[in-house]
Amino acid sequence: MGQLDGKFAIVTGGNRGIGKGIARGLAAEGASLTIAARNAELLEQTANELRANGTKVLTVPTDVTDEAQIKALFEKTIAEYGRLDILVNNAGAFNAGPIDELSTEDWDWVVNVNLRAPFLCTREAFRIMKAQGEGGRIINVGSISSHRVRPRTAPYSATKFGIWGLTQVTALEGRAHGITASCLKPGNTYVERHQNQSQPPIEPMMDVDELAQAAVLMATLPPHINMLDATVLPVGQLYVGRG
Q: What's the total number of domains in the chain?
């Protein structure tokens, strides 16, 4: 028996990278899943990989910058499963460049994906979990950039600072309802964009399944315990005073 048997989870950005790794980790513990992302073909491919191991998976193609699509994501999940126990806000965006050269469009895109979307998803999940009366867990995928920034990353770093603030407020407001909120802050993770580079990464990397172990731990702790935040990174990665 898995630690998440009978539990139902939504993972945004669940068709690749960190989201796919977390979905795989939750599934290994018995959770049924809704995975959401924009690329419907890749979403279904990921779902079929999970289904091959016996996991029940609902796919909902979703643009997380669209509030109506987010509402539909939660409505379809409840229609399919009848409840929601875990939300993983993983979908993310990155635009880089010097502050004085960044366009408003680039800034808004990252803010909408990395901060506005987690708020909208958290609001929907909070309403469902509160009404259920049995609590739930919300896991936000942040970044070590919420503590140690690098140059040319203003939109990304600002939103990852923001997601840490959103996590704390959600945790405070959720206490009375048994709803926990946690923030997973990954370091260098070997996702597809690194795999597709012609040269291997210079800095140390961890794979998505190694990182996902921390998310699974957050999701499987006893209900009276919350891992509020966790920074997970390769031992050799520059972190303290980096940049």
A: 1
Q: Is a pLDDT exceeding 60 seen at residue 18?
A: yes
Residue 3, domain member (yes or no): no
Domain of 99, in residue numbers:
8-232
- Would residue 114 count as lying in a domain? yes
Q: What is the CATH number of the domain that holds 113?
A: 3.40.50.720
List 81, 156, 190, 239, catalytic entry: 156
What is the model's pTM?
A: 0.94
Nearest Cα residue to 32 out of 18, 16, 11: 11
Residue 152: count other Cβ atoms within 10 Å of its Cβ.
Answer: 15
pLDDT in tens, 100-120: 999 999 999 999 999 999 999
Active site residue 156: yes
Percent helix, percent strand, percent coil in the chain, to nearest 5: 45, 15, 35
DSSP-assigned states of every residue in 83-140: ---EEEE---------GGG--HHHHHHHHIIIIIHHHHHHHHHHHHHHHHTS-EEEEE
Secondary structure of 205-222 in HEC code, one letter for each residue: CECHHHHHHHHHHHHHCC
Closest by CA to 228, choosing from 187, 186, 177, 184, is 184
64 vs 83: CA distance, rounded Å: 21
